[in-house]
Specification:
This protein has helices spanning 2-14, 24-27, 31-40, 55-80, 86-119, 123-135, 149-160, 165-173, 176-181, 193-207, 220-229, 239-248, 290-301, 304-318, 325-337, 342-350, 366-377, 388-394, 418-432, 441-449, 455-462, 467-476, 478-481, and strands spanning 252-253, 267-268, 278-280, 283-285, 362-363, 482-483. The protein has 484 residues and is an all-alpha fold. Strands 1-2 form a two-stranded antiparallel ribbon. The protein has a two-stranded antiparallel ribbon with strand order 3-4. Helix 11 (220-229) crosses helix 12 (239-248) and helix 20 runs parallel beside helix 22 (467-476). It is globular.
Length: 484
């Protein structure tokens, strides 16, 4: 029994959490109860995030930047036709200043995320937050989404990840990060007031020999909500359902100028909303402006297909690449029985014996590996030494850079290979070089892996030529690559 308890303690910290800090496994006396307790204490914002710009602040900065850039371009155009250059000289520093503020805000947020990951005592909570960030992936490869991806995690995902999935879903899909990333800000109802006015103008242009521009409905957000965020790719929805849903969320947008105001970060634009009732998955939704889209999302949130999809993805992330079907079914049932309560879903997972099976294990992604490494070695993650985000990018997992709305893959085969392993060894050496002086590599190994430290790995650490090499051997070992 003691052996099982020790194994569960190591799993609670490493597989369900972010990796063991010194003494953390030893303090984990009742693993299942300890994880459940973390869920009850998930409310307060971690201290490193205090004072950082929020979503509205980032939106205001971006609006200022776009306005200043537009004025700067106009000034250059005016200069080219003989206007004084003084206006250009005045605006260029202002443009650089706003760009600098945006960069500083993003850098501060990145540093805070690493600081929280490296020091938190609530690793299970933090892993859940990061799971949902990847589930609702926004890639900063699309530059318009760059100011909003990380702040969406902080303002929206952290707030709603332990409540009802309906609230999380609606909040994410109405955030500027998602609205910009999946082009809903450009989606126009074909029969909206705006489209009708533009059609009349185009007819006048065509009569004069001009050519109309293609524009209108954009299905990206609706499709990804159904395919990735709720029902899953295999569920029985049709292209007609996607189109109808896309029409229902036309008008979902964000402030674009001072006239819109920036008290919040969501704006509904009725003039581009497609009027009329919508039929999605066999149910008709009456016209209701912004509430029409919210009603559809509320039903998607409690659809059995969504329950199965979310349960499978969570079990795959926390338990195994191919989680036991019995576990997925139990989690999905608890989710539906609770009306979409996410804490009930997590509780069903950690309360199931399958989740604690000796066969349960997950290969650490680059982000997982780096977080677990600095936690195990007590290396500072303050950005003043190791450039952890740069290291993570070099290892193939740039922060908020999945390049796909599907997010980064969550299975071992995506991260195992000669080149990725070589980069882990290089990272292990860099981190080991910054381990505090006087650290005992044998103690680090035991504290990091607990009963999952194999004798062969302990022996290799013990035989290393120096403490630094011993720490690097541990971090590069097969034992450390797995969340067991």
């Amino acid at each position: 029994m003691a052996s099982n308890q020790s194994s569960d303690a190591a799993s609670a910290v490493n597989r369900f959490g972010l990796g063991a800090r010194p003494g953390e496994i030893e303090r984990m006396h009742a693993p299942r109860e300890a994880l459940a307790a973390q869920l009850k204490q998930s409310g307060p914002m971690p201290t490193p995030f205090n004072g950082l710009p929020g979503s509205s602040d980032m939106l205001r900065l971006q609006m200022q930047y776009l306005l200043q850039r537009r004025e700067f371009k106009q000034s250059r155009k005016d200069q080219s036709v003989g206007a004084p250059a003084e206006g250009v000289k005045q605006r260029d520093p202002q443009l650089r200043q706003i760009r600098s503020e945006l960069k500083q805000a993003l850098t501060a947020d990145d540093g805070a995320r690493w600081a929280v990951a490296a020091t938190t005592d609530s690793g299970f909570v933090e892993r859940i937050v990061r799971f949902w960030s990847n589930h609702f992936a926004v890639s900063v490869d699309k530059k318009q989404a760059l100011p909003f991806a990380s702040v969406m995690e902080r303002d929206v995902i952290r707030e709603h990840a332990f409540g009802n999935f309906r609230d999380l879903l609606v909040a994410v899909e109405s955030h500027p990060a998602m609205l910009v990333y999946l082009d809903n800000v450009r989606s126009i109802g074909p029969d909206s007031q705006f489209a009708s006015r533009r059609a009349n103008n185009r007819r006048k242009v065509n009569a004069a020999g001009g050519m109309p521009r293609n524009s209108g409905l954009n299905e990206n957000l609706a499709r990804e909500i159904m395919e990735l965020h709720t029902l899953g790719v295999d569920d029985a929805y049709t292209q007609a359902d996607v189109v109808e849903f896309a029409r229902a969320i036309t008008g979902w947008s964000m402030p674009r100028n001072n006239a819109d105001g920036v008290d919040g970060w969501f704006v509904f634009r009725p003039q581009i909303h497609q009027p009329g009732a919508r039929k999605v998955l066999g149910k008709t939704y009456a016209e209701g402006g912004v509430e029409q889209g919210r009603a559809i999302m509320a039903d998607l949130a409690i659809n059995p297909g969504t329950a199965k999809h979310l349960a499978f993805k969570l079990a795959r992330h926390f338990v195994a690449d191919q989680p036991p079907p019995s576990l997925v079914q139990r989690m999905a049932k608890r989710y539906l029985d609770s009306g979409g309560n996410l804490t009930a879903l997590y509780t069903a997972m950690i309360g199931s014996d399958e989740a604690w099976s000796p066969n349960a294990r997950k290969f650490r992604t680059p982000e997982d590996f780096l977080i677990a490494s600095v936690r195990a070695t007590s290396v500072p993650a303050d950005g003043k030494g190791l450039k952890l985000s740069m290291m993570q990018t070099g290892m193939g997992q740039p922060p908020f850079g999945s390049r796909s709305p599907a997010g980064f893959p969550d299975i071992a085969n995506a991260w195992i290979g000669p080149d990725p392993i070589l980069k882990r060894i290089q990272a292990a050496n860099l981190i080991a070089a910054r381990t505090p002086r006087g650290s005992d590599p044998n103690a680090i190994a035991s504290a990091a892996l607990g009963v999952h430290l194999r004798a062969s790995t302990a022996q290799a650490v013990d035989r290393a030529d120096s403490p630094q090499q011993a720490t690097a051997v541990l971090l590069a070992s097969p034992d450390f690559q797995w969340r067991i």
